[in-house]
Amino acid sequence: MKLHLPKLPPKVIGWLVAIIVVVSAFATRGTWVPLTEDWVRNTISSRRGTAAAHGDEPTEAGKDGDKHDDHGHDDAESLELSEKALRNLGLTPEFIQPVELTTYRRSITVPALVAERPGRTRLQVATPMTGVIVHVHAVQGEAVEPGSLLFQIRLTHEDLVLAQTQFLQAIGELDVERREILRLTDATKSGAVPRTRLLEREYAKDKLEALLSAQREALRLHGLSETQVDSIVGDRRLLRELQVFAPATDEHSDDELKLVGQLVRPVVWQPAADADPAQKPKPATPLVISDLHVHKGQSVSAGETLCVLSDYSDLSIEGLAFEQDAGSIAAAAARKWPVTAVIEQPGNVNLTLEGLQIVRLSNEVDADSRTLRFYVRLPNEVESLTATEDGHRFVGWRYRPGQRLQLRVPVEEWPDEIVLPVDAVTKEGAEFYVFQQNGNHFDRIAVHVKYRDQASAVIANDGTLFPGDVVALRGAHQMQMALKNKSGGGVDPHAGHNH
User: Residue 378 sits in a domain of what CATH number?
Assistant: First the structure.
């Protein structure tokens, strides 16, 4: 049995074909739409220079065909640079990039300086007991690791000596009671000794244990650690000398004060080169001895400061904003907009730190300067590390408290803008220009600059430049001067002189 399909009219077949084409085009739009957009942009970009140079009517030079190259360059608006010229201008590949639409944040610039973090940067090392300094292992300015030996102190505190003596005496008496209880236990089982005598010795033992517990706590109050008290019990010797070690920034341990003879952990900045990378410990943060207050042979009292350690690994930037900018800065902090720090360096090359965050704003306005202080977190890093022949180490941090800089705080956000570095734009009279790469040439393109600050220029997205156009991101002023010299429009050397 044969099936006879009805014949469709040609008009219906045409509509079906059209629908199939539309559906196929929509399904494959991810492939052909970007290619079409690139072709349109390239076509407009390649013909823009020719249209601007020739106008509506072709010129005689255009008819001759020998005054313009095959790409439609206008010699008066186009510049060809050699490889050496590109290197002289610093136009490496990372500075010749396509234009992109991005979000621009208009910023204000405020003075600032690097500051310490109160309660975090400085660590004060004090002695918990009275004594005499017998050795100073550290020197002024030295960098040490947490756990490094700093001082050795011979203890002279009379109360501590008496407390240790009584503690050792009680330990001896407790040992005697325990041996007596052991002897009476066997005698009581045989009936040779009444059980009341055993109970009396057990009561005496309980009293000694209570006394030892109280004396142990008294020694802890004198400043001894649990480890030190246990050492007195085990060695049955008085603590005569104290070792003071560098404390950690975020941790506290009673082992910062240790008995003489215990193992001293050496200072290690980085793991050995032949160590297993998977087992390498994280290098400790070096602490700098910024203030050293004692010397060998000096008598110190309990609580007296021995030295001050400084942890420069994490600092703050203290910004000084005018009172009228307080609202804008508070809004930027609430929106978590990143702040940029600019540090001036020799040779007109500024160091820029991006992505910093505002931590807090002061609740008071300085009465004298009428400025509002706000603070930005500044992670630091070791810039140099040197060691002397006697084993002392010194570090140089990249950022130092008191160092002056500037902060750029965003106060307004503009989405979908063409943002170029300020060195990518040059000005002549009332015109602003950028240089667009076209083959092996750079064409000068007049643009409208909506806003410009010390770092960036916002170009109007009016069709003069399109996303994807490749432009020079630096050296625009030098290229402008080269273009003027090429056309014979150099500066008159006698301008401004009367003869």
Answer: 2.40.30.170
